[in-house]
């Protein structure tokens, strides 16, 4: 059994990330920083409140719902801005069961160093696929881009978030390292900061491979 880290490193200069030194060992006896984080920076989880698809905030999502079985969909050669449709799931369409998670592996995290390309040109989830996930009762969906839909198209990004979040599907965005997962199955977990009334929060995401389902 192996535990794999699927979390982007939060670095100063990333969109939504800043910090400054508050204390130092030399001056104060310990090191500490003050962090300034956008609630959807880096690897993060959305709550239904993010798009008012429901009243549930990030601190109200049960921790037990944040981990479970997941399928990895390999989409490594997908062109920029190609909508991800049901057809892209291939034979996994018949294997994904109610309560399973779905991780869309696009290798998009390789663009994280180019902030504009990373944010503006990723393959989004199509309305067709989002509705299918609701019908199939998918529990959690994870993607490598910073969003499940085009952040420059308010209508589209609202529609996809409301479809998924409105059905209680947990969304995790900004994943990395999905290519570390051998095979189509893993146990996937993402643990968000417990922010009162939060619309979302950075989280530590991971996969467990080699464990029995």
UniProtKB/TrEMBL annotation:
Pfam families from the UniProt entry: Cyclase (PF04199)
Keywords recorded for this protein, A-Z: Hydrolase
A biological-process GO annotation: L-tryptophan catabolic process to kynurenine
Domain of life: Bacteria
Enzyme class: hydrolase
EC number: 3.5.1.9
GO molecular function per UniProt: arylformamidase activity
Keyword Hydrolase part of the UniProt annotation: yes
Protein name: Kynurenine formamidase
Lineage: Bacteria, Pseudomonadati, Planctomycetota, Planctomycetia, Pirellulales
Gene: kynB_2
């Amino acid at each position: 059994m192996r535990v794999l880290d699927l979390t982007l490193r939060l670095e100063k200069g990333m969109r939504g990330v800043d910090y400054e030194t508050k204390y130092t060992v030399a001056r104060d006896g310990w090191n500490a920083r003050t962090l300034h984080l956008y609630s959807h920076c880096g690897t993060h989880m959305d709550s239904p409140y993010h798009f008012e698809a429901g009243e549930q905030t990030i601190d109200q999502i049960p921790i037990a719902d944040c981990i479970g079985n997941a399928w990895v969909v390999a989409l490594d050669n997908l062109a920029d801005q190609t909508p991800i449709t049901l057809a892209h799931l291939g034979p996994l369409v018949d294997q994904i069961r109610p309560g399973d998670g779905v991780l869309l592996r696009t290798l998009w995290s390789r663009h994280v160093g180019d902030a504009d390309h990373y944010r503006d040109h990723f393959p989004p989830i199509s309305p067709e696929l989002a509705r299918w996930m609701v019908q199939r009762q998918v529990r959690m969906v994870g993607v490598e881009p910073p969003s499940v839909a085009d952040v420059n198209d308010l209508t589209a990004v609202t529609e996809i978030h409301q479809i998924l979040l409105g059905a209680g599907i947990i969304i995790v965005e900004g994943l990395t390292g999905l290519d570390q997962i051998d095979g189509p199955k893993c146990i996937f977990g993402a643990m968000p900061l417990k922010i009162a009334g939060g619309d979302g929060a950075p989280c530590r995401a991971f996969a467990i491979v080699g464990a029995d389902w």
